[in-house]
Amino acid sequence: MRVLVVEDERALADMLAKGLRREAMAVDVAYDGDEALEKLAVNDYDVLVLDRDLPGVHGDAVCRTVVERDVRTRILILTAATNLRDRVDGLHLGADDYLGKPFEYEELLARVHALARRAEPRRPPVLEHRGLVVDVARRVVTRDGRRLSLTSQEFAVLTVLVEARGAVVSAEELLERAWDEHADPFTNAVRVCVSKLRAKLGEPLIETVPRAGYRI
């Protein structure tokens, strides 16, 4: 899952990004509306966590731009303005959800997960394949009953591969969905991560398809 956090309070933005990354999400951060539009123009996000009162381009304008592009990105507005009129106006902009400040991180996390489920075809909460069980919500992976210890990056890559249900996933798509914008597309990060996953999974499950990518 790839998320863009747009928040001008840098400490809050960085805290949210750090927390979401611990949940195996690829997270980019923008601190104003102009930067947000730049990132939205070049990256495909599942969820946009958007502060409404932004410097530069206002959050309302960012929201309208995303809606007008008719992309699959789901929008969660964050704002200190929480009266009924503000909530209604925010939803009328085309946002999918609205969360007032201050908020509990656990609630924000639950809302991001809920929006992500709406951004893509519905998936079961537990994915299974040949003795491999991936509990997406609890971030637990077992193989033949043995619990595996995976890094957030490994969990993200494995989830993408299992969700593909045997289809080939290119290295470029894995970079797009499991890494943030700081990933260097010319490195061997995907190959190294897949190699580590293979070692932890035991019996080979991940197949390399020459000049195409990987599949389970």
Protein topology:
Blueprint: E1 2-6, H1 10-22, E2 26-30, H2 33-42, E3 47-51, H3 59-69, E4 74-79, H4 84-92, E5 97-100, H5 105-119, E6 126-129, E7 132-135, E8 140-143, E9 146-148, H6 152-163, H7 171-178, H8 189-201, E10 207-209, E11 213-215
Parallel strand pairs: 1-2, 1-3, 3-4, 4-5
Antiparallel strand pairs: 6-7, 7-8, 8-9, 10-11
- How much of the polypeptide forms β-strand, as a percent range? 15-25%
**Total count of strands:** 11
Q: Give me the oligomer status.
A: single chain
Fraction in helix: 40-55%
Mean pLDDT: 88
SS-derived structural category: alpha/beta
CATH superfamily grouping of the largest domain: Response regulator
Radius of gyration: 18 Å
Q: How is this structure best described in words?
A:
- With 216 residues, this protein is of the alpha/beta class.
- The protein contains eight helices and eleven strands.
- Helices cover 42% and strands 21% of the residues.
- The longest helix has 15 residues, at 105-119.
- The mean pLDDT is 88.
- Residues 124-216 form the OmpR/PhoB-type domain.
Record keyword descriptors for this entry.
2 domains; Arc Repressor Mutant, subunit A; Rossmann fold; alpha/beta; 42% helix; four-stranded antiparallel sheet; five-stranded parallel sheet; DNA-binding; 216 residues; elongated
